[in-house]
Amino acid sequence: MEQSKINPKLKEALEWLYCIIIAVVLALLVRYYLGTPTVVKQPSMYPTLKQNQRLILNRWVRTTKKMPERGDIITFEAPSKSYVAAYEADLSNPVAVYENEPQGIWNKFMYYVLEINKTSYIKRVIGLPGDHIEIKDNKVYVNGEEYEEPYLAEGVITQSLAGAFTDIIVPENTVFVMGDNRGQSTDSRRFGCIPLEKIESKVLIRFWPFDVFGKVE
Fold this sequence. Notes:
The protein has helices spanning about 10-35, 60-65, 105-115, 190; strands at about 35-40, 55-60, 75, 120-125, 130-135, 140, 145, 165-170, 175-180, 195, 200-210, 215. The chain is α+β, with helices and mostly antiparallel strands.
């Protein structure tokens, strides 16, 4: 008895489906582990980064769990509390609060891989583990010395913004971050230091607009 054959059109459709699935999986792997494009949506890094500029993010730093360097511009998962009042701040462990962890494999996939309903911030690393960070006299001090910041716009000062974390020691495996646009940046002054495991990427290059194409510093 002759063996039934698959309809050629069905076979072709299945082959295309397999190719699409493989392409999607590869794209997700590259996006999560290697790099991805993004758009600047907020003014907190002005003038270094302006709204609607396009960037390429290096996610290899997350894959390797490598601690960023001071001055690096990074993206990270937004804390669940964007502001911690002085009366509830633990200055002996000034780490940002993350309370809204998704539950279940599917929800984690949607949140961490597809990044649905996930908010990320982009800021500059100012303090590394063990650093003493002080915000005083409208300036930043790292380990007792005024920190030079040539990337800030002329006339910009650094105030506390009523944040509780303005005289702290950066805990192990965390970083202290701030936006370059100090008056319009919700950052470590207000929510504390960012754990290494919450860092998503390092800004690699700006590719749009073309007249400012290049490495971001």
